[in-house]
Specification:
The protein is α+β, with helices and mostly antiparallel strands. It is built from 5 helices and 6 strands, in the order αββββαβαβαα.
Length: 179
Amino acid sequence: MKFSKRRRGKLTKSLLMIFQAKGLLMDTALKFESVGDTFSFFIHIFIKYRGVEKVVIEPKVITNNKITYENLKVHFDVEFIDGSLSDVMIKARDYIHKGHKLLTHPLMGSIKPNETPYKSVAISLKPEVSVDFNSVMLIENSIETSNKLIRNKAPRQWPQSVLEDFSIIDYDLIKNALI
């Protein structure tokens, strides 16, 4: 479907306002990229807006957080890892090496890997033909950073109430990145 220059301008302006309100940036190709101190993710979105069909990269979530698993499995493909934060990142890396793209930054949020036992990472549901170099570099650097932090200061044994808080924070971070 073709739109007039004026209509495209209005559509672009409307979408730009919506995505700026959600903290996303938009270029003229409708490629959205959000980059911050604690997270970055790349997602190509083609939105169904007044007859304009667009494509969304469907996510797969890898998590060791039962709250995230239980709440997101209804909407997304979620793989539960019965293991550590490092195990989640290694599993995500394995998928990325097979052609999946990283959709959320593995170290998003302000809680350091040696402070929380929970981690949820979103990758593309379907692999691409080639490996995404940016995703590989990001996951490898995140694993290295996590391991360094954990080596320098071992994770504490938190009371159950604090663990529940960490679990809710992890769920909230991934949910807001995806929805």
